[in-house]
Amino acid sequence: MQRRITGGGAIYMDESVLGWELYLGKADLGTADMGEISQRVCQTAARAVCAFGVRAMYRPRTDIEVDGRKIAGTGGAFDGDALLYQGTLLLDFDVERMLRCLRLPAELLSPQAIAGARARVVNLRELLGAVPPLEKVKQRFADEFARTLGVSFEPGELSPQEARLFGEALAEIDRAEWVDMVRKPRAGLPVLEGVHRPPAALLRAAAAYERAGGRIRQVCFSGDFLVNPPRTVADLEAALKDCAVDNPPATIARFFHGRRVEMPGLAPADFAVAVTRAVESA
User: Fold this and answer.
1) In order along the chain (282 residues), what is the average pLDDT of each group of 10 residues?
2) How far apart are CA 12 and CA 194, in angstroms?
3) Contact assessment for residue 207 and residue 191, using Cβ atoms and an 8 Å cutoff
4) Residue 197's domain is classified under what CATH number?
5) What is the pTM of this model?
6) Proportion of the chain in helix, strand, coil states, percent, rounded to 5
7) Together in a domain, 145 and 197
8) Which domain holds residue 65?
9) 155 part of a folded domain
10) Are strands 69-79 and 191-196 parallel, antiparallel or unpaired?
């Protein structure tokens, strides 16, 4: 287990996930705008995935999707003029194993929640019937990034100075204190459920609630409803992470403002009602 400097939620890694990283300078990119950089990097990675015969495309702000289902995620961080930009690609992914390894509350591991998570992601094996040779996938990514950045990649070793700097950095992060620095006490948090039945739909909100801090640490929506694009629910759950207990209605309203979402029988306020009812059950 390790803590990544690019921030964001936890990432589960095993042999079914390809991880990649770019180390660049601001001068290499011509901009320090992370939004522009994310779009450029993700579009390049999407082209690499498309080379295997699937229709991958950039999903703002930092993901890559195929027909509305996430196949890759990315993130970046600046350190002075240096940029680390990293990403993952799902090759042959077990969603249920990931959810259980992340030690989510049992209520968020229901069959319905797991089925919902499976519907939001996809991997190369599911799309192609088999995982392409790993070296071929790596080479395709290298070729696309080389073309985008106008460079050529050559295998190499760390220089003595690079090896020294790597050793210094590793000594700082390869210890439990670094990993635990931002750990949040999610285990043991009460998980509250709110149920809302608008016309022609059923909406459940399971919320991990930290009473002491007055915050909703995590929300999972399930039920009988249709939302298109499907990723909307996952993105809304992400927007509600660590939300103050009295802020969900405003956060949900901001989330849906300006978005084109089809929700037969549902309105944005219905999600707020479900979350509010969950919190009120405390």
Assistant:
1) 66 92 88 86 97 94 89 85 91 86 67 81 96 96 96 93 93 78 53 86 86 84 79 86 89 92 88 92 77
2) 29
3) yes
4) 3.30.390.50
5) 0.64
6) 40, 25, 35
7) no
8) 17-149
9) no
10) unpaired
